[in-house]
Write a structure and sequence with these properties.
2 copies of one chain form a homodimer.
Chain A (H helix, E strand, L loop, with lengths): L1 E2 L2 H13 L4 E6 L5 H13 L2 E6 L19 H11 L3 E3 L3 H5 L12 E3 L2 H4 L2 H5 L3 H16 L3 E5 L3 H13 L5 E5 L19 H22 L5 H6 L9 E10 L13 E9 L2 E8 L4
Parallel strand pairs in A: 1-4, 2-3, 2-6, 3-4, 6-7
Antiparallel strand pairs in A: 8-9, 9-10
Helix pairs in contact in A: 7-8
Chain lengths: ~290, ~290
């Protein structure tokens, strides 16, 4: 069922709650691919009722980013959700979420602001204000849907960790279910932005997963010095790659580390053919 | 029933919700007086079950303010609540609310930040960060108790308006019930900080309510020019008064006005005997 208003989704959820049913929420920006589908499947499995939100959230895009050209495929998204057993696709307009004036500043809108320590690194460094927009919209979605469980992909690991921190800090009554990255057979992590890649770009884009896998292999062989592990990346990079960062951090609190261990997550961001791609890997994962 | 942990209050509320009972929350910093009691009575009247939170919230005090000497009277507060028919007095420790480290900065804590336009005036101007702390703790309390109704006094009118804005902006599923200011027979608005006033201070403190009442009388007689209305205040002020502000604003969006009408709220803050007092009046109120 496709719903566009907050009022309608609330009424439906209220009825479910009265019946004692559990509710799952999968927040997305649409352009659904198999990565999203893995979250959706998990939600359908775990919860009595599932809401997938499809909302390209203007306040999490920075000036100069791809807000206007971000892929919007609501018809296909709804079909995919219906087939997967989703009960509600919630696709509000920006006006429904933020009022007639889409306020992009904190002059007239209450914001939820994640801690500086979690934000001032990785993607947050180049995408100033991005995670403020993410936390604010996710907080709103939690308040609208009041889910028992919510599903986030490890693909956006910094986002996942920041949302976990928000839920803990603000005592939000929801359980977060992290879901592993889904990859093409080639190793490329699925992303809605992959649509921007040419066939040739896609080959160059494999460097990200190759770098991460190689680092993990080196770690498994006993190399724990982060500088040494970083050195192993450069063999995969050439003039087609514009590396933004390659960082090693504790996966719980995003504390930077110089000596890798099983709790270390390696984060990479790199532009390929003008498209900004991210990927990550947990060294302790089997 | 006095409860100190989030877990216990959640379990109790969950049981009430299962029974279909409505829940009211009255957030306080304790040192309860008849002003609070009027909120509590309204809550007991309106809701099946009532939680009163008693928490002196460290993150809403600014450096140099009275956090340490703020009156704490939990035993008397609990007695008063019991007598009024309150079901739970929720009195968490700072560690229970913020973890072992009481984080006073946004480096390690997720904050809820009200809009700059609502904050950069009246009490927010001198109490930098105060309303960030208020919104964050109230948001946490809403998530912990999940009340259907919550009760705030018009005494702290800027706070009430900011909380209303937060609830709207973040789609928080709670209805706010504003409650009128309670005054001593003399006209002095009740406040926990009145305890700091000497008998002589209390007489000087009457200037606040006198100024507001006089302005309202002048307005009712047809004077709407704000500058002219402000002029009428000075007859009540002498060397015992340190006026911080006297402002005329729209009571819904805190927009400053030069011509008073029925939606205009007049706000005053003034130090008497070193104690900062606030008061306000709605010109359209009968």
């Amino acid at each position: 069922m496709l719903i566009h208003t907050i009022k309608e989704v609330r009424e439906q959820v209220k009825e479910w709650k009265k019946l004692g049913l559990t509710v799952g929420l999968v927040p997305t920006m649409g352009a659904l691919h198999n990565g999203h589908l893995s979250l959706i499947k998990k939600a359908v499995e775990k919860c009595d009722r599932v809401v997938v939100s499809v909302f390209v959230n203007p306040i999490q895009f920075c000036p100069g980013e791809d807000l206007e050209k971000y892929p919007r495929t609501l018809e296909a998204d709804t079909k995919l959700c219906d087939d997967a057993g989703v009960n509600i696709v919630f696709a509000p307009s920006p006006a429904e979420m933020y009022g007639e004036n889409q306020m992009r500043t904190n002059d007239f809108l209450t914001y939820v602001i994640p801690p500086f320590f979690y934000v001032n690194k990785l993607c947050g460094k180049s995408r100033v204000g991005h995670f403020d927009g993410v936390c604010t919209v996710v907080n709103k979605l939690f308040n609208i849907v009041q889910p028992d469980f919510t599903f986030f992909g490890e693909k956006d690991a910094q986002q996942l960790i920041i949302i976990q921190k928000m839920v803990k800090d603000l005592n939000i009554p929801v359980e977060i279910i992290p879901c592993p990255i889904v990859r093409e057979e080639s190793g490329l992590a699925l992303s809605s932005r992959n649509k921007y890649l040419s066939d040739e770009d896609k080959i160059h884009a494999l460097a990200l997963s190759k770098i991460l896998n190689n680092i993990k292999n080196c770690y498994k062989k006993g190399i724990t010095d982060v500088e040494a592990l970083k050195e192993t990346a450069y063999q995969f990079l050439d003039e087609h790659h514009d590396l933004e960062y390659l960082e090693f951090m504790n996966q719980n609190d995003l504390e930077e580390t110089t000596k890798a261990d099983d709790t270390t997550r390696v984060f990479i961001a790199c532009k390929v053919g003008g498209v900004r791609l991210i990927d990550n890997i947990l060294l302790g994962e089997k």
